[in-house]
Amino acid sequence: MSEEKEKKNQLNIELSEEVAEGIYSNLAILAHSNSEFIVDFIKVIHGTPKARVKSRIILTPQNAKRLLGALHDNINKFEQTFGEIKDKGPSNAIPFNFGNTSAQA
Q1: How confident is the model at residue 92, as a pLDDT?
Q2: Per-residue pLDDT for 47 more than 60?
Q3: pTM recorded for the entire structure
Q4: Which of 22, 50, 51, 56 could form a disulfide with 44 if both were Cys (CB 3.0 to 4.6 A apart)?
Q5: What is the pLDDT of residues 69-100, one digit of tens each?
Q6: SS3 readout for the chain
């Protein structure tokens, strides 16, 4: 009976070929309101004065915190395997405002 219940609770996730290709991003802008977190993924090309948001992800506060934990766990595992990720210092602040909170990248 528990095996049957376990099968019922499984989630089948489909990944189309287009989505599986991914979208390259070298900048993320984060913002939040009282009910959601917004992550805009952007590809910035050096020397180009304009950049487009390639993807926007909107999360509940609970899912944003779960994502933070999952990223932290995966970064730790990555560094255990490949060594420390070197941070090249603070990024330049990009002016962006949503819900009266400043975004950070």
Answers
A1: 56
A2: yes
A3: 0.72
A4: 51
A5: 999 999 999 999 999 999 886 665 554 444 44
A6: CHHHHHHHCCCCCCCCHHHHCCCCCCEEEEEECCCCEEEEEEECCCCCCCCEEEEEEEECHHHHHHHHHHHHHHHHHHHHHHCCCCCCCCCCCCCCEECCEECEC
